[in-house]
Queue: 2 jobs
Job 1
Amino acid sequence: MNDHAQQYLASGPNFAEGEVIERIEVFRKRRPRLRDSVVTLAHGAGGKASAALVDAVFVEAFRNPYLESLGDGAEITLPTGQRMAISTDSFVVQPLRFPGGSIGHLAVHGTVNDLAMTGAVPSWLTAAFVLEEGLPIEVLQGIVADMADAAAAAGIHIVTGDTKVVPKGAADGIFITTAGVGLIPPDRSLSPTSVRPRDKVLVSGTIGDHGMAVMLARGDLAIEADIVSDTAPVNGLVDVLLAAAPDTRWLRDPTRGGVGTICNELAHDADVAVALDEQCLPVRADVAGACEMLGIDPLYVANEGKFVAVVPPDQADAALAALQQHSLGSDAAIIGDIAAEPAATVVVRTGFGGTRILDKLVGDPLPRIC
Amino acid sequence: MNDHAQQYLASGPNFAEGEVIERIEVFRKRRPRLRDSVVTLAHGAGGKASAALVDAVFVEAFRNPYLESLGDGAEITLPTGQRMAISTDSFVVQPLRFPGGSIGHLAVHGTVNDLAMTGAVPSWLTAAFVLEEGLPIEVLQGIVADMADAAAAAGIHIVTGDTKVVPKGAADGIFITTAGVGLIPPDRSLSPTSVRPRDKVLVSGTIGDHGMAVMLARGDLAIEADIVSDTAPVNGLVDVLLAAAPDTRWLRDPTRGGVGTICNELAHDADVAVALDEQCLPVRADVAGACEMLGIDPLYVANEGKFVAVVPPDQADAALAALQQHSLGSDAAIIGDIAAEPAATVVVRTGFGGTRILDKLVGDPLPRIC
């Protein structure tokens, strides 16, 4: 059960029991159902199929209050009252090294950024490696050096780890899983339920850079462009944002599935409309060009060093100015706003005065980009 | 740098600078060197090659105070003074299901037990999945159900997770990485540096069950035996032990590499001799028989529901009695003691009045058992 259903339940006293159940059924119908009998690549893409798999298999089995929000990490309250965030991600990107970074950078930045999205100060990281027999030690050392650099840049310590080796052919070089822990300062409270109509939607920089950089690095597309991954730790940039806009409602990093997917999740979880202005989206010309050639909407392409923020209207200009002064936020932009209707929907206002509905990603146009 | 080297450094005032460096050099010479140019299965076996890889690649790159002890998890002190443990493990066992459990049980028990070995109360778990395209959803659901059962039995919540999918042939069905977090009660302090000569060494039950169960489940050995994995959460049993023997010095679960490997680590880290009495080792007859046929010492075979404890001599009987009253500790035994010399060595006293040196595991006789 996610925040949305939970909210219906929490407002129970206002409803007759049957009505509550009916509302939950409505909620359930909104979520995609799992119809597949085997795992497909689409289940790993972060879109509709991923959501269906997570709902049908994991949330169903692990049912507990922590899982209900299904954000970038779980929030724990310690006996002292101190709040703590925990997050984890596996990394299976191919190729292992691409313009702008490596699987090692991603493994650190990915979890650091997930923690930062909860409002936590990322502090401690674990790293578990599944290695394929035959992986050159030199390749491993290079990746581990990237992790050490990334950890230092993000101000996080890699405190413990694990290594497993599987026979040649049983894995693809190296898979890395990191988990991160950080404390949430008392004055920070980020949640989709605090999002209100007229709030502004910001993005911290250009979108689609990472996904396109990895796709082009594979070399099986006949496109020549110098696109560099944006992989970076955004915790410092989040601090800057929250200082300038202390009532920031919600943060999320648009990784797999891109800005389009997380805006859909926000629209559902907050039961609002997210209206994006297509002309305001910061997209590098070469990324836009590659997307057009591939027939992919940049709104669905992954980033690894960006976030989307919802801030109250009166703090939006301060937020934008603060972001733009930071080296990682120079291309930040206000890209849309929140409306009450149509609820649970993302609307894109096109350059021609029209609008289109932006659905969750279906299928997996860009597999294994993280 | 591990506890051992750290201890030399910490006692610095007693040594001239050159002497300290010399002692660290001596320590370094004791640790195996990494001579391989590619990753081999032995690097994942938990023995000498694993230690060399971890030292040369991970500890070298991630150098920080948390990594120095290299135990089952890292200990963090929060700003409130509260101590917390963090641990992680990847699971790549084949077959996915074996007598007594599945990869799902292992993924929960493994991390729960690692946390318990630090003295922490295991409370929150993350679960990250790397799935191979084509994995039947039903198989996944079965594994996830096992994880939910195992989490409930251990009293831990699975609070967040991640799912990645790789193309057919790029993984072997399913790999699971869990990370766990738990708080350490203030009265608990476990460390190899507190181990003293004349302390007693206990094991919580029969050894070698898990490794042999998985080996036989693969069906490529011509041995018929009903050996069942011991996979289980031992946090409850640790509570029982620490209540009966509050001055327990050190705990470790003998997974990969078995009791022999962790006793070697203890001998090195505490700079003592660990003397084991072969006749006191609890080994099931069928496990002993299978080990003999395979030419493997049960001291090197993995367990997933056992621990080794070092307790002060005057609390050993109380510890043993308490363990034996618990369903998971009925076969607990005192298996040896600690001596000052020969330092950094494990000695096995055989049934014939002789002794033999038990070295760290070399190679990987039992690959992918967790």
Job 2
Amino acid sequence: MSAYAIGIDIGGTKIAAGLVDGNGTVLVRGRRPTPGFDPAAVLATVCELVRELGPGGAGAVVGVGAAGWMDPEGSTVVFSPHLSWRDEPLRRDLERALGRDVLLSNDADAAGWAEYRFGAARGEDNVVCLTLGTGIGGSIVLDGELRRGRFGMAGEFGHQVMVPGGHRCACGNRGCWEQYASGNALAREGRSLLAVHGPVAKGMREAAGNNPHAVTGELVNSLAVAGDEACIELVVEAGQWLGLGLANLAAVLDPGLMVIGGGLGAASPLLLETAEQTYRSSLSGRGYRPFARVVGAELGPDAGLIGAADLARNALG
Amino acid sequence: MSAYAIGIDIGGTKIAAGLVDGNGTVLVRGRRPTPGFDPAAVLATVCELVRELGPGGAGAVVGVGAAGWMDPEGSTVVFSPHLSWRDEPLRRDLERALGRDVLLSNDADAAGWAEYRFGAARGEDNVVCLTLGTGIGGSIVLDGELRRGRFGMAGEFGHQVMVPGGHRCACGNRGCWEQYASGNALAREGRSLLAVHGPVAKGMREAAGNNPHAVTGELVNSLAVAGDEACIELVVEAGQWLGLGLANLAAVLDPGLMVIGGGLGAASPLLLETAEQTYRSSLSGRGYRPFARVVGAELGPDAGLIGAADLARNALG
């Protein structure tokens, strides 16, 4: 078993690659823009990145993480909404092209596994990990192993319905958690506040050039960090929804630790603090049971590729 | 390892005991009323029941299932709302009294484990099991093992909040799932329909002698089974809530099978059919992923003691 493995993180805008050692350290990095949705183009880019990592990665197994559902064997991309892929035999094709073993993982599973092995969740065998960005991705570690469920699709926390009949979600349903506690939720509420000409939205209106479409989750959060009262309100509201959903996850899974990563998770201490407060005041049975700790992720944007590499090393190495 | 184990199911009104073989068959049975909340009295009754099971059970390990939270080691009743126990060292006390090994389990965990080992979930390694009665208990089998979480409290499905600000729950929170999809939900809605003098409630009013307090979940369900239109509506409504919650559990856990047991689960095929329909029309990502099957439990009221016995045999035998 080689101490090195290669991790690939296929995102909607970029593909990141890294040569990762057995301690989760990224030794060499590579990065390319995602070449559209065509599987053959993505495959070619991944192959280039693997070669680019140099002789240290020669023969190392390759773990690929991407948004979407992988089958439980890590062979097929069953469905990837962002890449518009369906039943794509990416593992077989990559193994042929690279001449070595490959494993596919869901990107949130990979990130959560990385935090468990090398990051914020080291030493805690029952962990819920959230990737908080435009939506909410998730992963589950119970009794020291990643739990993917029967079909490889566990951890879709963002799509638990928390408000029946509520806001429409990109998944087609209504009232999904990620419509209330994510970057998209901040953006929608910010735009909505501009649209009603809310007087409190003065700062947001100026920052957005009076253009509602310029209001993003990042903008709302950065204004909140800078002290804008209206944006602070929006972040606190999203944090309360986040905490309520954490309480639901704790009722179901009873983790010892909940890790919150992702772009928004990393950028907003206020969101995390509010979420933890709400979680602690919402957990069913509080006062009669211990609380899970709520912490920020430690590995940042590298988590996906580190976890994909480690999962591949463990399964194939 | 003895082929026999003893299972004890401590309920609010009765304590059931059984000598259980390695195939989950109950060979000898015993039963007593629950002697109130006093731990010493409950312990004495359990000891009597164990002796009553006769020489076949001599020396057999004892598994005890009860409503409430057990620590992960199966040693202490951390909290049992129905028995008013807190931090009760029941295992130690029973081991001293009985002179043999004892393991404590949550009753819903025990029932779910029994369905996995010997009942409706045989052969499926990723299972969610619901005990649907006055409330909703639950258990999780992932990758072939019961998952209890960090503190032994996983599977509290009934207390996921599905309607923020909704009906008050016995747990103190608002909007818990079990306030919408359980025997208590049927009772509350039935009483509410009587209270507003709903003309459709004629059958229920007669059956309850015009006394709202006589409206129970069992009554509403039995009237529905008998064809009462208003009660059918109430059961269908509860079934829709049940299905919505199943979709949430599937989003989080991705089981291959969901088993619905408990008194109400066994008594209402309409509730289960409605729940499955709603689950299938609510699952996030439907059309792009397989559905978990939704089935009724097979072991009936014996599930708790069979599972408690088997868990004890596996851990101690």
